[in-house]
Fold this sequence. Notes:
The complex is a heterodimer.
Chain A lengths: L16 H6 L4 H17 L6 H26 L7 H17 L5 H26 L3 H24 L14 H8 L1 E4 L2 E4 H19 L1 H11 L1 H7 L3 H27 L10 H11 L11 H20 L6 H26 L2
Antiparallel strand pairs in A: 1-2
Helix pairs in contact in A: 2-13, 3-8, 3-9, 3-11, 3-12, 3-13, 4-5, 4-6, 4-11, 5-6, 5-11, 7-11, 8-9, 9-10, 9-11, 12-13, 12-14, 13-14
Chain B lengths: L23 E12 L2 E12 L3 E6 L5 H9 L6 E6 L2 E2 L5 H6 L2 E4 L11 H6 L5 E2 L6 E2 L1 H14 L16 H14 L4 E5 L7 H16 L3 E6 L2 H7 L2 E6 L2 E7 L5 H9 L1 H15 L4 H14 L1
Parallel strand pairs in B: 3-10, 3-11, 6-9, 9-10
Antiparallel strand pairs in B: 1-2, 1-4, 4-5, 7-8, 11-12
Helix pairs in contact in B: 4-5, 5-6, 9-10
Amino acid sequence: MATATAAPDERLATTSLVGRLLKRPEIGALIAAIAVFIFFAVVTDTFATAGGASTWLRTSSTIGVMAVAVAVLMIGGEFDLSAGAMTGFTGLVVGVLTTEYGLNIWAAMVVSLALALGIGAINGILVMRTGLPSFIVTLGTFFVLQGVDLAVPKAIIGQVAIQGMADVPFYDQPKAVFGSAISVLGGNVYASVFWWIGVTALATWILLRTKVGNWIFAVGGAQTASRQIGVPVFKTKVGLFMTTAGAGWLAGMLLLFSVSTVQANTGVGQEFIYIICAVVGGCLLTGGYGSAIGAAFGALIYGMTNQGIVYAGWDNNWLRAFLGVMLLGAVLLNEWVRKRAETSR
Amino acid sequence: MSDTKSTTHEAHPDTSKPAEVGTPIIEVVDIGKRYGSVIALSEVTTSVRAGEVTCVLGDNGAGKSTFIKILAGAHEHTDGTLNIDGVSRHLASPRVALDLGIATVYQDLAVVPLMPVWRNFFLGSEPTTGFGPFKKLDVATMKKTTKSELAAMGIDLRDVDQPIGTLSGGERQCVAIARAVYFGARVLILDEPTAALGVKQSGVVLKYIAKARERGLGVVFITHNPHHAYPVGDRFMLLRRGKSMGDFPKSEITLDELTAMMAGGAELEALSHELSRELGADSEVAKKMELAVEDAEA
């Protein structure tokens, strides 16, 4: 490795830090996040305070954990529309098993994780074996989960929300891991924020510095070519779907232990928010290109806008309109970047 | 040429030393392939030798694809014998062919356009450092090796970090060739590498074919263009309608003879007669056709 530092090629102008940054897929999301922050910090009084920040960071973090996982899946060339419903499903499994059957809370969480990974594996195997688009396969899983989330709790506990979660023995232990908060400068930093940062860092490391990361970019960018060259396409893709489902479990636990309850419709509709965050963060809808950090910034933009609109006293419904505009803007920007990357010299 | 192989990549033991120039690596004798009652290929005989280029020429549908699929391990042959290093074999899968040092570079090149050149170069066989969960890509070695291996093939890249999609068609072809060579190929099968390229780019690829031959590799060069085949080829095997029209060393055939055989002298003549009958002997097209026939026969 000592000889690895070859003399830089004289035909390469020494690229400045700015120049290198501008080539990264997440740069658009970073600039947009800064703009959104400055905008609400100026327009509202509470946004840039410690208390205000702890609220929007919390919103960003629970969305962000999933957005990062969905981004990695999208880089691998697939979608998971069941990702939102999965967060409610995993929470409900833990809730029902503990409050109704008195199962140990950690054991219930393990069961919930195993079920999530199983559903992820089914998603992946169905997509790979049938050759159907993941958009259709996971749309099916999404509806199945949505139905199960409503019907099963109704049949077992007679209602569609978990009650009495806080009275479950040892509830404090997972609560400390997933739902606690520490006080910083007069505001609260929730555990979910650390999970969000951790998941983003891990995903970035895997994508950029491991074999598996190389394979994820490859199967998303050119599946046939990857197979010809010896990349284990099937394993990579099934693993990606399982990872997304596992992240769904994590997001489900973060929600469950921060509010001590979970409802049957939790997470439904969020799947598109994750995809928007990933695309805003620089992921191509066609796969093979994107960034985990970008998706984390996408989630940050979502969280800041979500709370900023409340602080500004506007009608909350403008959030959706804003997201739509941002998505279109991001897609156009990404397409332009991709065309440049593929053809320019 | 760099001899710094990565820590985790092991070259095939038999491939560590290039064989002596002229040593036959692959010999096919009266090989054939039937798909049920359809005879796709029959009675083809030729050889691939270390440090030599065997050109397989034929028009569309002549059986070129079937022939390379047999050598690449994509289809097993049904007739005749395929000897590799003197041992009769049936190649059951591309993996088996690769393990014997036979690498195929297909027309689509098996590259991922949006990924950097160095990531593409090592895709599927990435070297790593570290242990267990901390195993990471050996990025420095990967970049350095990519640069030096491409340099050995005569490609001087400004930046191995650029997406491979930004390279020209010829350069991409060469990266695919360099990759196959680095991962232990002794025989390179190139499927119409110049088909989609312009004149200048074709020249670049031909240069790399010559380079690969110099490095002691056996090259199977599939093409329908005798003008591309003749300058780099040592041996020419012509296919027409699934049959071999002969297997000639360079010393036994000239470019004109090769072109004439490719154009199908007899068929061309028949076409010329037909045209002059239908359009009248003094029609522009028919006259040109006759001239072409005379050229081919000359």
